[in-house]
Amino acid sequence: MRRTPLRTAAGQDGPAEIRGAAFERIRRILKTFGGFQLHVYKDACVKRRLDARMRAVGCATAEEYADLLLLDKSETDALIKALTINFSRFFRNPATFDRLRDEVLPSLFSGCALAGRDSLSIRSVGCAGGEEPYTLAMILRDSFAGELSRLKVSIVATDVDPEVLRTAVRASYGPESLEDTPPAMRERFFSFREGRFLLDPGIRDMVSFYREDLMLPRAGGEFDLILCRNVLIYFERRHQEAVLAGLEGTLRQGGVLVLGKTETLLPAARRMFRVVCPIERIYRKI
Ligand SMILES: C[S@@+](CC[C@H](N)C(=O)[O-])C[C@H]1O[C@@H](n2cnc3c(N)ncnc32)[C@H](O)[C@@H]1O
Description:
The protein is of the alpha/beta class. The chain has helices at about 20-35, 45-55, 60-70, 75-85, 95-115, 130-145, 145-150, 160-170, 185-190, 200-205, 235-250, 265-270, and strands at about 120-125, 150-160, 170-175, 190-195, 195-200, 205-210, 225-230, 250-260, 275, 280-285.
């Protein structure tokens, strides 16, 4: 079947911009029925994924696809899933977690002790299937048992995609999710059954999962450590700025922000943070 691609601003310099009434309908449907803010994502990314979904369901035009979205809620979920690339794995970029274990967490625990505080709060934003917050929980259990017995440590993990959150709560993973996991951690914190790795219930209980769209943040409170890795890359620059300002607002003074290895602080955000480790993209709120 021959399909008409979504209309784009042909001949324009720079990335093609999605235009037209059909796209506007799709945007509104996603917002109304999926609570999803499409406009914040990079156009090229959106266009590729919309086109792939249209191909998958055999829709010839964006208008036809918008009609399908209205009829079939599962297609709305499938489109949101396609738009929010949710690849992750335990210990992804292991050197980042080494830094967190060896420098960042000890300094945050010392800061707590100096300030006479009895709790430490951690946030994982765009947590996908839970691999990132659970990795932190394993590191805490493995290397900071004393601190865990003295302090209340909470890990709050959020994502916009309800399906990945269900995966996170199930905590059952295929072998590919553990490719970067040190063997000793795998032995200690997973059991293997019928081809799946099941996470230790004690680690599962350390993390609370919530659905939250970064663009409509609800999380209150003050966090000591925020991981927002491999999420900003999909957002248009001005929305990245808004997200960084929002994250800064929920970090304690002296709190730490970690971005993905290919992400950087935009100029407006550089005034709010000092660089702790440029390679691992670790920043401390001034
Ligand atoms: C590539 S994954 C990153 C997972 C993990 N942080 C890591 O680095 O391995 C990006 C995640 O961001 C989530 N995401 C995308 N847009 C979001 C938004 N507006 N609000 C919250 N999460 C979002 C996706 O659903 C996806 O699970």
